[in-house]
Amino acid sequence: MTGGRLSLVQSPRIAVLGAGHVGPVIARVAIEAGYQVSIAASGDPDKIALISQVLAPGAEPRWAADAVADAEIVVLAIPLHKFATLDPALVADKLVVDTMNYWPPVDGVQEMFEDSRYGSSQIVAHRLARSTVVKTLNHIGYHELDDERRPVGSPQRRALGIAGDDPGAVDLVAEVIERIGYDAVRLESLGAGSLLEPGGPVFGAFLRRTQFERAVRAEAA
Ligand SMILES: NC(=O)c1ccc[n+]([C@@H]2O[C@H](COP(=O)([O-])OP(=O)(O)OC[C@H]3O[C@@H](n4cnc5c(N)ncnc54)[C@H](OP(=O)(O)O)[C@@H]3O)[C@@H](O)[C@H]2O)c1
């Protein structure tokens, strides 16, 4: 899907892939922001019915293929060491939001992600060659994602970064981030998204918009 077509979508339907720690929280905050959300794990939706009901009421548990088929935005909230189990054809032509981080102590050494010339989302995008990949939500913990939402204009509103190469897709995801309750700071490219990764200047940091912009600019300089 191209950015031009995406920018016409008024209130995109969201499919969250992953029903572990962060997936249900992303589903919940998106529902509370007014989006229609489905959620899927790697198998039978019956297995995530209870967790969805409790942690993300209103999110529809579905088979991944069904959730993705009806969605304009697909959020990848699966451990990176499981990424190879995701069939790229499943998310072809979709806007994919990559929330994943590469953490060798947790993920083990994943050869695919060992090339330090590229950010992990660039490697994801390379494998998902028919999808449009945008990186965000990887640099905030799942508890914080729930707790730190604030309305526009609040002095305590936290900023989150968004990185992508397709401006229409970035705009659409930025609107989701804003509606959820965060200020969206656009980075210049998917490659610049490596600034959002573990060890980077904004990973896990509570920063307001100007502080966030300063931190990524200083690192990029
Ligand atoms: N935890 C956080 O606070 C946080 C915050 C931001 C970003 N992240 C990133 O988000 C990712 C997920 O983190 P997590 O802590 O939520 O992990 P987690 O709790 O281990 O999540 C596991 C979930 O992923 C599902 N899954 C695995 N392979 C799948 C596939 N091919 N299709 C659909 N679902 C699949 C699993 O389903 P089954 O049980 O059916 O296999 C399970 O529901 C990581 O890359 C992490 O770095 C985490």
Structural notes for this entry:
The chain is an alpha/beta fold and 221 residues long. The protein has a single domain (3-220), classed as NAD(P)-binding Rossmann-like Domain (Rossmann fold). Helices cover 33% and strands 14% of the residues. The chain has helices at 3-6, 22-32, 49-55, 64-69, 104-107, 120-127, 142-147, 167-180, 209-220, and strands at 14-17, 37-40, 60-61, 73-76, 95-98, 132-135, 159-164, 183-186. β2 (37-40), α3 and β3 (60-61) form a beta-alpha-beta unit. The N and C termini lie far apart (33 Å). The mean pLDDT is 94. Bound molecules: NADP nicotinamide-adenine-dinucleotide phosphate. Residues 17-23, 40-43, 64, 77-80, 82, 85-86, 99-101, 137-138, 141-142 line the site of NADP nicotinamide-adenine-dinucleotide phosphate.
Helix content: 25-40%
Measure the end-to-end span: 33 Å
Q: What is the strand content?
A: 5-15%
State the order of secondary-structure elements, H for helix, E for strand.
HEHEHEHEEHHEHEHEH
Domain module count = 1
The level-1 CATH class: Alpha Beta
CATH architecture: 3-Layer(aba) Sandwich
- Corresponding CATH superfamily: NAD(P)-binding Rossmann-like Domain
**Could you report the average pLDDT, rounded to the nearest whole number?**
94
Summarize the structure.
This protein is an alpha/beta fold and 221 residues long. The chain is built from 9 helices and 8 strands.
Structural features:
single chain, 221 residues, alpha/beta, Rossmann fold, 8-stranded mixed β-sheet, binds NADP nicotinamide-adenine-dinucleotide phosphate
